[in-house]
């Protein structure tokens, strides 16, 4: 019983820390190319013609699975988008998918 309580507690704590963590991971690992807002108005963004991932059109075109996959495996089209599976945990990658959704222009 004690164990189960600890587990539930840990899960609910990590859920509340999620959003904040993901923003921090985005800033640390993704912002340099994609920009804080996902518009890719960066040197690398312009050079590599990275899509503005905050637009409604981009968001509608890409499923959570597509996004998860490109973060995990990298992009086949452009090697500058590296796979992050060795650098981030699956939880962090999940968090980034949610973070990318939160960048959708309102
Ligand atoms: C060194 C620069 C760089 C960094 C750092 C980087 N990316 Fe990318 N990313 C790219 C490039 C270039 C592309 C375009 C790839 C293509 O054309 O398919 C891309 C594409 C993407 C796409 C798909 C865009 C599309 O139009 O299909 C997603 C999602 C993405 N990156 C997420 C991330 C996340 C999340 C991180 C941080 C963990 C990250 N990227 C870090 C350069 C970068």
Offer a quick outline of the entry:
With 106 residues, this protein is mostly helical. It has helices spanning 2-29, 31-34, 43-47, 56-61, 64-73, 90-102. It has one domain (19-102): Cytochrome Bc1 Complex, Chain D, domain 2, CATH 1.10.760.
Q: How does this structure look, described?
A:
The protein has 106 residues and is an all-alpha fold. The chain has helices at 2-29, 31-34, 43-47, 56-61, 64-73, 90-102. The protein is elongated. The chain binds heme C (HEC). Heme C (HEC) is lined by residues 29-30, 32-34, 44, 48, 50-51, 53, 67, 70-71, 75, 77-78, 80-81, 84, 96, 100.
Topology:
Elements: H1 2-29, H2 31-34, H3 43-47, H4 56-61, H5 64-73, H6 90-102
Helix pairs in contact: 1-6, 5-6
Residues 29-30, 32-34, 44, 48, 50-51, 53, 67, 70-71, 75, 77-78, 80-81, 84, 96, 100 line the site of heme C (HEC).
Please tell me the overall pLDDT: 91
Rg over C-alpha atoms, rounded to the nearest angstrom: 15 Å
Number of structurally distinct domains: 1
- Tell me about the largest β-sheet: none
The CATH architecture classification is: Orthogonal Bundle
CATH first level: which class? Mainly Alpha
**Small molecules held by this entry:** heme C
Beginning-to-end CA distance, first to last residue: 45 Å
Tally of helical runs = 6
Which structural class is indicated by helix and strand composition? mainly alpha
Strand segment tally:
0
CATH topology-level name: Cytochrome Bc1 Complex, Chain D, domain 2
User: Uncertain runs with pLDDT below 50, 5 residues or more?
Assistant: none
In percent, how helical is the residue content?
55-70%
Q: What's the SSE pattern?
A: HHHHHH
* Beta-strand content: under 5%
Label the overall shape. Answer: elongated
């Amino acid at each position: 019983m004690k164990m189960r309580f600890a587990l539930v507690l840990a899960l609910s704590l990590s859920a509340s820390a999620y959003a904040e963590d993901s923003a921090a991971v985005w800033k640390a690992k993704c912002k340099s190319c994609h920009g804080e807002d996902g518009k890719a108005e960066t040197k690398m963004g312009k050079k590599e013609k990275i899509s503005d991932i905050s637009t409604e059109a981009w968001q509608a075109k890409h499923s959570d699975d597509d996004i998860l996959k490109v973060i995990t495996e990298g992009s086949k089209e452009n090697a500058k988008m590296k796979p992050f599976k060795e650098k981030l945990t699956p939880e962090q990658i999940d968090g980034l998918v949610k973070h990318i959704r939160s960048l959708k222009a309102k």
